[in-house]
Automatic annotation (TrEMBL):
This is Lipoprotein. Residues 1-18 form the signal peptide. Keywords: Signal. It comes from Burkholderia dolosa. It comes from the Bacteria.
Length: 157
């Protein structure tokens, strides 16, 4: 009976870790190649892309599951570390269905959270600057992602 409990706990922990890993996306992920022309065009027209356009940066990314509806969303960054700092690069989250950038920020990775608000999952944007881990949580509000709290727990509006 004890062995059965250990096996069940192990399976639950493994499942949770597998779910978490599948939902983390980094700017260095090897599978950033499936971006539609519509999503690329949406980012290219956004004012936040101007500095990267001047550098001749190309865009890469992949579909990410942020909503249970038929809305198609993408994680997009620049290819070949174009315009990046030390392990921090541009990140755009695009709602392709509405041709809209719903988050423009910088970081290393995003983690899609299980909790959803207003139809979209919350996300954390993570990075490390000068050896200090940084994380900002975002929730979906009024058609775009808004910051909820920073790594130190302070609330931002």
């Amino acid at each position: 009976m004890k062995l059965l409990k250990v096996i069940i706990v192990f399976c639950l922990i493994s499942s949770a870790n597998a779910f978490s890993r599948d939902r983390d996306i980094t700017i260095e992920s090897k599978d950033l190649n499936g971006v539609s022309q519509k999503a690329v065009s949406t980012v290219s027209k956004d004012a936040s892309f101007e500095p990267f356009k001047d550098l001749g940066c190309k865009l890469v990314g992949k579909k990410i599951p942020l909503t249970s509806s038929s809305t198609v969303t993408y994680f997009i960054t620049t290819s070949n570390a174009c315009g990046w700092g030390a392990a921090v690069g541009p990140i755009w989250i695009v709602d392709e269905s509405h041709e809209k950038v719903i988050l423009s920020t910088g970081g290393y990775s995003i983690e899609v959270r299980q909790h959803a608000k207003n139809g979209f999952h919350d996300i954390d944007v993570n990075s490390e600057i000068s050896g200090n881990p940084q994380s900002t949580s975002y929730f979906f509000k009024e058609g775009k992602y808004a910051p909820l709290k920073t790594h130190d727990g302070s609330v931002r509006h």
